[in-house]
Amino acid sequence: MDECRDSGHPSQVRDMIPNLEGDEEKELEQLDRITHVPGLMGGKATIRGIRVTVGMILGQLGAGTTIDELLDDFPYLEREDILQAIRYGALLVRRELPAT
Q1: Containing domain of residue 46, as a range?
Q2: Higher confidence at residue 91 or residue 26?
């Protein structure tokens, strides 16, 4: 929904991850709902530039919330948003990122 959107310009999250390799680059290209908006949510990866972070979604799932419950609680999210958040998290834990 528009009221959840930030007025900044989202960029693809691949801009945040250095030294991507072939398969990682291809995988990130498929994660078109994962965005980065400087100044939004502390610069964390968000869903479609709205005020919902990938970390929030993964944390809720890890705490036992189901995808259907998340969709009920956040009607502006779509199932593909949640699935892409899971895939993004999996990508990050499969690689070593430099400390920031």
Answers
A1: 2-94
A2: 91
Q: Residues 62-91: pLDDT tens digits?
A: 999 999 999 999 999 999 999 999 999 988
Contact criterion met (CB below 8 Å) for 25 and 91: no
Residue 99 lies in a domain: no
24: domain CATH number? 1.10.10.10
Of the candidates 40, 88, 96, the one whose C-alpha atom is nearest the C-alpha of residue 61 is: 88
Q: If we measure between CA atoms, which residue out of 53, 40, 56 comes closest to residue 7?
A: 40
Domain count, the chain: 1
Quote the CA–CA distance of 2 and 6 in Å, as a whole number.
8
Q: Please state the pTM of the whole predicted model.
A: 0.75
For residue 5, list its beta bridge partners: 50
